[in-house]
Amino acid sequence: MARKTDGMQGREGLEDLFAAMREERVPPSDALMARVLADALAHQPRPALPVAAEVGAGVAVRPGLWRRLAGLFGGAGALAGMGTAAVAGLFIGFVQPEGLSLLGDAVLGTPLETVELIPDVDMLFAGN
Amino acid sequence: MPRDMQAEDPATAPDEALLARYAAGDPAAARALTLRLVPRAMGYAARMLGDGAEAEDVVQEAMLRLWRAAPGWRAGEAQVSTWLYRVVTNLCTDRLRQRKRRPAAALDEAPEVADGAQGAEAGLIEADRMAALQAALDALPDRQRQAVILRHIEGFTNPEIAEVMDIGIEAVESLTARAKRALTAILAGRREELGYGEED
Which of A79, B59, B129, B193 sits at 20 to 30 Å (Cα–Cα) from B9? Predict the structure, then answer.
């Protein structure tokens, strides 16, 4: 009985000691804080730089496909005009409108059936 | 807008948000995390090791590991404070293993709390009581000491301790119970000196 009473007192006293130790913190020294902060800054990743800054620093940025094509044909306007002409030619060749044939006959004076873009080989030997 | 401003305030931002900002290159986050975490880690390490200089080395190493882990930190995986306490625990365990374990000697090395002729009736100053408790903590097995310090000094819950120590909650309860029994027994012989054993 007496031992149990002692034990209870011991536990209660222990809780008091814990409470006192919670109050009595062990503070870090200023030197430790400085060392930890120095480590933090030394190992901190560098923030990402904006693209403009990278160009200024000499890092080449490769232009896109459309920008390179436009540059090749003299600008975006010229590239758009060529595209339009190509689409129109494809349309005319595919549809073959009647009015266009009559216009060709009037201009050439004879019906145009075929056009030989490469002369026949026989013409090369005709002079012999 | 005020909400955003509040979220950006380092003093009130959560640990994880500050760590993300640190990884993004914000120096204010580094300072805020240092001010917030180092005192807590220092208090724990000092109680674990009973040696302030060693505790400072441990804390610096633990914080260095945190800085290095920051760029790869995965949100929601672990609490920053729990992760740090686990690292401090492991570093302290390594140091304690390197020491020669002399529990009885450690208790004897505690400052004499009172001279028999002069101080028994006058009571003890608080520093003497803390020194005696620290010596008793030093005499505990490592795992018991970790559990009881985390529970009763650092104020962690049992689930948090289980996460820090990587054990089950029942094991935590067992460790803390055994630690308190052992501390009571160790301190029993010094009850009068510590000022809590006198019966009214």
Answer: B59
User: How far is Cα B63 from Cα A33, in angstroms, rounded to an integer?
Assistant: 11
User: What residues of A are in contact with residue B35 (Cβ under 8 Å)?
Assistant: 33
Other Cβ atoms less than 10 A from the Cβ of A120: the count is: 9
Per CATH, is B101-200 categorized as 1.10.10.10?
yes
Shortest Cα–Cα distance, A56 to chain B (Å): 21
The answer to the question of residue A101 being in a domain is yes
Reported as a single tens digit per residue, the pLDDT across B180-193 is 999 998 888 776 66
Q: Is A22–B129 a contact, with Cβ atoms under 8 angstroms apart?
A: no
- Report if residue A116 sits inside a domain: yes
Is B43 in the A-facing interface, judged by CB distances under 8 Å? yes
Residue keyed to tokens 């301790």: B161
Q: How many residues does chain B have?
A: 200
Residue B23 has its nearest CB partner, among A9, A25, A45, at A45
